Amino acid sequence: MDNNLYQYTGHDHDVASRQRDFMLRLVLAFALMVVLFALLLGRFVYLQVFKHHEYVAQANTNRISLVPTPPIRGEIIDTNGVVLASNYPAYSLEIVPGEIKGKTEDTIEALRAYVDITPGDLKRFRKFRAEYRSFENIPLKLKLQPDEAARLSAQLYRFKGVEINARTFRNYRYPELTAHFLGYIGRISDRDQKKLEEESLVSLYRGSTHIGKSGLEGFYERQLHGTPGYQEVEKDAYGHVVRVLKTVPAKTGQTLRLAMDIRLQQEADRLMNGRRGAIIALNPQTGGVLAFVSKPSFDPNLFIDGIDSDTWKALNEDWQRPLINRVTQGLYPPGSTFKPFMGMALLESGKITQTTVVPAPGAWSIPGSRHLFRDSVRRGHGSANLSKAVQVSSDTFFYRLGYELGIDKTAPYLAEFGLGSPTGIDLPNEYKGILPSREWKAKRFAKSKDPKTRQWQPSEMVSVSIGQGYNAYTPLQMAHATASLANDGVVYRPHLVKELINHERREITLISPKPERSIPFKQSNFEYVKQAMARVLQPGGTAHRIGHGLPYTMGGKTGTAQVVQIKQGARYNAAALAEQHRDHAWFISFAPVEKPQIAIAVLLENGGWGASAAPLARSLSDYYLLALKAGRAPAGAVQAAGTSAPQQENTSQTVTGAPASPPAASVFQQAYATAGNVQTASGATP
């Protein structure tokens, strides 16, 4: 019995111990739960009270988005308001690859039931897809027909990641007629993006896809682009726009009004008649560009959304180099058109006077040398003063005097006319040309091991004196020098843009035609050389044929520039040479002589004798002075190539909502009627 009692008492002790352990664990668990709930409550209070405003702002950001609205690009018009570069609205079919379910190719194939997707569309899409990011809109078809847009819009709910967006398209109405000075726009590249970042301009291009690449489009990019706007929109959980809360409209870019009349430009283009070369015409009184033709040309519309590789290869490998802007980037020896400026150097240096007469034989040799430098006229011209030497284009006259004057005394006088320096025209990438000098040659041949190659040789001055040798200038430089000479040394900077029209502010900024400087030469010498150039068009002059029946006074100078050297004693035979090796034909002119209104430089690449370029300058001067200035030219603009409707489908920018009408020519008229502020800008730099 005692044993049983002992065993019972031990059992009760174990039960009590287990109960105490259980209660302890229960208390600890409860305490842990209290602590955890306290932590959750504390976190809740922290988020809801102390961080309330911060997270409300973030939540609103997730719900409300800012959608940038790119501006409509400014137009470019001629002096009469005729639109040369414009915008037109249209719808485009676009794909966001990151939102497509399944294969993109399957989606495109399904879209064919509603839209005509051509092989060209697919090729362009694949090119863009390699360059765009997955969440960016990639154009599949740049311009939808109205029925296509209507048909597809009703089915868009079936295609996730497919959008129809309104865009403005850039169009060049006279493509090949204006390509080399208008330039073109193109998609913003990595290089463009980097430049925008360096200049802190990224915010101005939010939503924009294109930027000016060349010509006026590139030079005046900041003025043409405008300022972007934005829409504040509310989105649902799926990212769909529920409603527009606020709209800040974009500001349209400024309109560029040129000094050029498109009718004169077309006349200059017609006169070239398919030949290679350039025509540039300036107003000597203002520096305004009246005509700007570089042939052959190209269609700038091809570049706006990325030119295809086959077309690019064809343009780039064409031996006629249509992409080269011959007016500002073509470097050519000026030939005898150089002689009036060389004559000014001879007069101003005191080497000769207006009455000095020197021999002008059929050939001349450097003293102590047996090498003959021949005149273009085998029998020579007997003897001549400077006026006669310019009129008949005597080579031996300039051989002798140029050699005796030397390069060190000659170069500074020629530099006064801007030869060998950029003119400062409002176009990018202008070449400065080559005005030979002792310093230039040392720099040019600095790597040569032969000291004689680096040093200026006196004999080199002989060919330089007649516009050959190392001389190389652009047609623009020759026109600019001619205008400065015709204007008695008053120099104006050449400029294409005459006015900047700001439609938003109702302001017009004038490109003020203020003289840059005056050439410090004697006025009597200017007048003497100008009259000598007038004699070029008179009987006995090298361009006397175009002077027949001239109803106004005109000065000019022919020039024939060698491309390949002819052996000593050999005759030039164009028929025996490849076309690319034949001489260039030059003609410079100004009219009227008394108060010049137009100065022209004509270059016919491999065109032969300079006299063959003279008729083009005469015809262009006739059209300008007798038709346009006298009001006898056909009123209105010439018809653009093809039809008046855009021929090329080109994307400029994406806009939100329905297409908006771009500024029309009427806006230009309204700007003049209501302009509240007219400002003046000196020179051509924007």
TrEMBL record:
At the top level of its lineage, which domain of life is listed? Bacteria
Active site (catalytic residues): S336 (acyl-ester intermediate)
Record-annotated Penicillin-binding protein dimerisation domain positions? 69-245
**What EC number(s) is this enzyme filed under?**
3.4.16.4
Write down the membrane topology.
Answer: Single-pass membrane protein
Lyase in keyword set:
no
The kind of enzyme this is, by top-level EC class, is hydrolase
The family database entries (SUPFAM superfamilies) matched by this protein are listed as: beta-lactamase/transpeptidase-like, Penicillin binding protein dimerisation domain
Return the Polar residues bias intervals: 646-656
Q: Which GO terms describe its biological process?
A: cell wall organization; peptidoglycan biosynthetic process; proteolysis; regulation of cell shape
Q: In which pathway does it act?
A: Cell wall biogenesis; peptidoglycan biosynthesis
In residue numbers, the region (Disordered) covers 639-662
Q: Where is the Penicillin-binding protein transpeptidase domain?
A: 277-620
Segments passing through the bilayer: 26-46
Q: Which UniProt keywords apply?
A: Carboxypeptidase, Cell inner membrane, Cell membrane, Cell shape, Cell wall biogenesis/degradation, Hydrolase, Membrane, Peptidoglycan synthesis, Protease, Transmembrane, Transmembrane helix
How is this protein annotated for GO cellular component? plasma membrane
InterPro entries xrefs = Beta-lactam/transpept, Beta-lactam/transpept-like, PBP_dimer, PBP_dimer_sf, PCN-bd_Tpept, Penicillin-binding_protein_2
Q: Which GO terms describe its molecular function?
A: penicillin binding; peptidoglycan L,D-transpeptidase activity; serine-type D-Ala-D-Ala carboxypeptidase activity
| Reaction it catalyzes | Preferential cleavage: (Ac)2-L-Lys-D-Ala-|-D-Ala. Also transpeptidation of peptidyl-alanyl moieties that are N-acyl substituents of D-alanine
Q: Does the keyword Cell inner membrane apply?
A: yes
Q: Where in the cell is it found?
A: Cell inner membrane; Cell membrane; Membrane
Protein family membership: Belongs to the transpeptidase family. MrdA subfamily.
Q: Enumerate the HAMAP family for this protein.
A: MrdA_transpept
Q: What does this protein do?
A: Catalyzes cross-linking of the peptidoglycan cell wall.
What name has this protein been given in UniProt? Peptidoglycan D,D-transpeptidase MrdA
| Originating organism | Neisseria musculi
